[in-house]
Design brief:
Blueprint: H1 14-29, H2 42-52, H3 61-68, H4 70-78, H5 87-93, H6 100-107, H7 118-131, H8 133-146, H9 150-162, H10 172-184, H11 192-201, H12 203-208, H13 232-241, H14 251-260, E1 264-266, H15 268-272, E2 278-280, E3 290-292, E4 295-297, H16 302-313, H17 316-330, H18 337-349, H19 354-362, H20 365-368, H21 380-390, H22 398-408, H23 425-428, H24 431-444, H25 470-477, H26 483-490, H27 494-502
Helix pairs in contact: 1-24, 2-3, 8-10, 8-21, 11-16, 13-14, 17-18, 18-19, 21-24, 24-27, 25-27
InterPro entries: DUF1800
Keywords: Signal
Protein name: DUF1800 domain-containing protein
Length: 510
């Protein structure tokens, strides 16, 4: 007869306790925000704009927006130039001022000694990753967490993802920060055609999708690595940047657009001299007449490319494709066709005025519907940034932030292929992701997070650490956490409560 063995009970560690409790909250919170009156309350409306136009409230934001009214808040956010940046934020951002040419010369191939060893060349490349990448990441995270221009930050992320480049592709690493700073951010709320042009001319995009190598067949300088037509950028320009996969173009249009853009390249010698990287090489351009999307293009060299961008930016398929993505980002994973149509009409009527399209979206009943309130599952980036904002944790070291984002599957500038990250709940909601988020939240609450201190700085002593105050956190988030969830959280030990708030299913929605 076997001896009786008492079952061993697993140890209830703080991490396991947070995980178990938060998953219990998940079961209790399903549909919790669906009930209630049809109209959102003033506090709910304030939370809604803070969550959807940006990355959620910092302490005091909810009260401030409720007091000023959401209409005035939206108007301010649509005009970020009217919102002053904090001086400390300006000073920290001013530290990175190098141009693409300077970055290339100081960190790129010209700095590699042609007679150097393989190890020396590898070390030179690693220097770029060590010195530049953390600065680029810091600039993004600082502005997302601290800038009062939250809509500008959300739209910068939206467009940087829409026009995705992968920082791990060789030379792109030198330029990804400037790409976001000068090709994306200035146009995030401006004119789509100007944004499209800024992206098309930037060396990060020219290099990432290989257009800098493309040459017209039989042209005088079509030789070596520049021999042959490259269709990569032309295809993605139509499929992902403008018309959409069902936008009405054919393979013949891809080839024609590649011919149009042949000769749009990067001038390495000009960069070495400190000049602009973009160059049009007429000796690599296919100069024959062309018909693009049914419209004839005269043989006008560089201007053919500008004419093609004009056609794409003003195409009805582009209006519909961009409008659909905006509705998915700001309203619902399943876009309302009526709202998409309304935004498309505004896009076409204003020749791609992004601000006007967004104003129409924010004025729509769909945006304010309770059915779309607290229903979008945050992406990893939205979750991490909103956690740092709600907890008022300053980003002093970007490495642990991007380390967490990498664990979540969404590192900054880290998506390899040109379609960018998805924003849908389907892409990000799974048990493993929930547990990772719960553990991240638990690591923020003790006042000793490495995010909040410079790299290499020792953690504060237990006496100096300032754990998060759960009551202040609840006041910051307001109606984001349902009364039922608050009651359950407050029944737990005080030292667990802040982590349970940030790790709750309620907080994972926006």
């Amino acid at each position: 007869m076997r001896p009786f063995r008492q079952a061993v009970r697993p140890a209830i560690t703080p991490v396991f306790r947070r995980q178990l409790f938060a998953l219990t909250l998940l079961a209790c919170s399903i549909g919790a925000h669906a009930a209630g009156p049809a109209e959102l309350s003033p506090q709910e409306r304030a939370l809604h704009v803070l969550n959807r136009l940006g990355y959620g409230p910092r302490p005091g934001d909810l009260e401030q927006v409720e007091k000023m009214g959401v209409k005035r808040y939206i108007d301010q956010q649509l005009h970020p130039e009217r919102i002053p940046l904090p001086q400390d934020l300006q000073a920290r951002l001013a530290a990175l001022q190098m141009t693409p040419s300077q970055l290339f010369v100081d960190y790129g191939p010209p700095s590699f000694d042609k007679d150097g060893t393989k190890e020396e060349k590898q070390a030179a490349r690693q220097r770029a990753g060590r010195d530049l990448t953390p600065q680029f990441h810091m600039a993004r995270l600082l502005q997302a967490t601290e800038s009062p221009r939250q809509l500008e930050e959300a739209m910068t992320e939206f467009w940087a993802n829409h026009f995705n480049v992968f920082e791990g592709k060789e030379w792109v690493r030198y330029w990804v920060g400037d790409y976001e700073k000068n090709a994306i951010r200035p146009y995030a709320l401006g004119n789509f055609r100007e944004l499209l042009g800024a992206v098309a001319h930037h060396p990060a995009m020219l290099y990432y999708l290989d257009n800098w190598l493309s040459s017209g067949a039989g042209t005088p300088d079509a030789r070596g690595r520049f021999k042959g037509l490259n269709e990569n950028y032309a295809r993605e320009l139509m499929e992902l940047h403008t018309l959409g996969v069902d936008g009405g173009y054919q393979q013949a249009d891809v080839i024609t657009l590649a011919r149009v853009l042949s000769g749009w390249t990067i001038d390495v010698n000009a960069m070495k001299a400190g000049a602009s990287p973009f160059s049009f090489n007429a000796r690599r351009h296919d100069g024959a007449p062309k018909v693009f999307l049914g419209k004839p293009l005269s043989a006008s060299g560089y201007q053919e490319g500008e004419a093609a961008l004009d056609i794409l930016a003003n195409h009805p398929s582009t209006a519909r494709f961009i409008s659909t993505q905006l509705v998915q980002y700001f309203v619902s994973d399943k876009p309302d066709p009526a709202l998409v149509q309304k935004l498309s009409q505004k896009f076409l009527a204003t020749h791609g005025d992004i601000r006007a399209v967004l104003q129409t979206l924010f004025d729509s009943p769909q945006f304010w519907s309770r059915a779309n309130y607290q229903t979008q599952f945050k992406t990893p980036y939205q979750f991490v940034v909103s956690s740092l904002r709600a907890a008022a944790i300053p980003v002093m070291n970007p490495r642990p932030v991007n380390g967490v984002l990498a664990q979540f599957g969404m590192p900054l500038y880290g998506w390899l292929t040109p379609e960018g990250y998805k924003y849908s709940e389907e892409a990000w909601l799974n048990p493993d992701a929930l547990l990772r988020r719960i553990n991240f939240a638990g690591g923020l609450i003790n006042g000793r997070s490495p995010i909040a201190r410079a790299e290499g700085a020792p953690p504060p002593s237990n006496a100096d650490a300032r754990p998060l105050d759960p009551q202040l956190l609840l006041a910051t988030l307001g109606p984001a956490i349902t009364p039922a969830a608050v009651a359950r959280i407050q029944g737990e030990p005080a030292n667990f409560q802040a982590g349970l708030i940030l790790g709750s299913p309620d907080f994972m929605k926006r």
